[in-house]
Amino acid sequence: MQIQLSHLIPLPLRDKLLQRTSDIWNKDVTFSPGSFIKIKAPSGTGKTTLVHYLYHIRYDYSGKIIVNGKPWQDYNKSALATIRQQQVSIIFQDLRLFDQLTAWENIELKRVMGPAPACTGEQVQEMAARLQVTHVLQQSARTLSYGERQRIAIIRALVQPFQWLLMDEPFSHLDEENTRRAAALIAETCKAQQAGFVLTDLDNDVHFNYDVQYQL
Amino acid sequence: MRPFFQLLKKIIQTGIGKSRLLMATAGLGIAMVLLLIAIQAHTNFNQLLYGRQNQNESADFLVVNKKITNAMMGQSDKSMFTAEELQTIKQQSFVEAAGYITSSQFKVTAAAPGELQFYTDMFFESVPDSFIDVKNEEWKWQEGDGVIPIILPNDFLNLYNFGFALSQDLPQVSQETVKNLPVKITVSRGLLSSQFTGHIVGFSDRISSFLVPAAFMDWANNRYGNGKAAAPSRIVIKTSDPANPALVKFLDDHGYTTNQDKIKYSKTKLIVQTIVSVIGFFGIVLLLFALLVFSMFIQLIIASCKKEIQLLVMLGTAPAQLRRYLLRQFVPLYVVTGIVAVLLVAVLQWVAARALAAHEMVVSPWPGIGMWIAAVVVLLLVYFVNNRTIRKYLD
């Protein structure tokens, strides 16, 4: 699944962004399947906005995002749902877990949403063990610390089939050790699914072997 | 799909406003029962009315004439039907066929043969052959035939046997005997006369008159009549439903009258129809309100879970999945309601059938096909409306 950006500019940030150079905004960029992509972005340059554009939950831009040869706007609601169930997964910056569900149920929701789960319940347990959140799985998401919620959100993004994983500051609340573990899990899962990812962050990092690095 | 729906159940709370849902369901149930009862009552009444009378024929015949009032006595032309009037009658939707009853314009006398001292003046009438119910191969006449087939009214034989014969010490006669009795018929006008042998070929309940074949009537009227084609004063109509209130109203409006016995059900039918319509009307009104409350309930659920639904869609839940989940919360509810309503009406029908049977009135112990169709239609309607509501508010 190929993602092409063509002269993409967020309308609210238009004037500000046109005054500075960027590798992404107002350029022609192609994300080729399977590549690990890092987008480094200082605060206020539209990092989260870009991720939301790529996931098609914000539409206030000029230019185009072309997915598999078609602009996002050409996909209807149910086609979009299919893509989100089977081809594109996401870790939101603000995580977006359901407070009324337990951590386990939050993961399970994404795992059984589509027609064919990417992994079994046991595999979810293993992932939880690797990220050291096994003990909170049966707790309500409301009662978890931010770091725990972030790890649950990471696992949730990995249990579905995907070709692209979008990550918006996925390790912002994790210590170094946990970041290392989470990055290893993400890299492994992406390799296993032959998927690529787009990661946005504020600073340079060495969590992954990036194929491409952009400055937003 | 199942585990996913179980998770959805925790996110989209349908428990909110349970009393409202209960009210809507109860309303739907009562509405269905009322509607089904109305339809079933209609079916039953029709069955009672037409089930046994007229077993072999689907049509009934009425002889219609104008009311003879004091004011028109002596003016026989006022009781005549004109061609336009016949045309108007034929055009009514409840009239399948209509024809003149032609009366004789000549003198007729009849004399019994042999020792039966019997001699009388009489008359003949004829109707188009398609209105004759005792049809047999003898029912024909052509010029030169000395024998005229005649149909007598059943009532006439009864009057003779049980009224006249008993009081005058005369023998009672059977239909067979009468059929074998050759009657001497003299047809005349002034000095001109012909003699025929009358042969009784049958008895009719349908038309109270002495009937001869139309061919004979035409010939005799031509030869012995006064030359003027007289307009007839009686009309026979064929109708599938003599109790049709529209028919009765038509007759009343035009000052026509007919055998009251045959149309006596009309009033009962009108009353029953009114009651059934009122029940059915309330059923429909109630159904509409139930649908409204259902729709509002669905709207409430969707509105109260707006954020959750948005996040679900964001995570990739298909609109069809949400629709199916929401419908699954309601469909079993009204399918059960429908089944309960149908069962209730079926039990009522069974009880009614038994109660009526005690009075020798036969209705089917099972609900009619109309009720089943109505039940299915109502359920489909509810499903359709709910589906539309969900679709509308999810988007």
TrEMBL record, chain A:
PANTHER family tied to this protein: ABC TRANSPORTER ATP-BINDING PROTEIN MG467-RELATED, LIPOPROTEIN-RELEASING SYSTEM ATP-BINDING PROTEIN LOLD
Domain of life (superkingdom): Bacteria
Membrane spanning stretches: none
ABC transporter domain ranges (all copies): 3-216
The protein's name in its UniProt record: Putative ABC transport system ATP-binding protein
InterPro entries: ABC_transporter-like_ATP-bd, ABC_transporter-like_CS, P-loop_NTPase
Natural source organism: Chitinophaga rupis
Keyword list, A-Z: ATP-binding, Nucleotide-binding, Translocase
Molecular function in Gene Ontology: ATP binding; ATP hydrolysis activity
TrEMBL record, chain B:
Compartment annotation: Cell membrane
GO cellular component, one term: plasma membrane
Principal location listed in the UniProt entry: membrane
Residue ranges crossing the lipid bilayer per the database entry: 21-39, 275-302, 331-352, 364-385
Keywords: Cell membrane, Membrane, Transmembrane, Transmembrane helix
Record-linked InterPro entries: ABC3_permease_C
Annotated ranges, domain ABC3 transporter permease C-terminal: 281-392
Record bears the keyword Chloroplast: no
Keyword field contains Cell membrane: yes
Protein name listed in UniProt: FtsX-like permease family protein
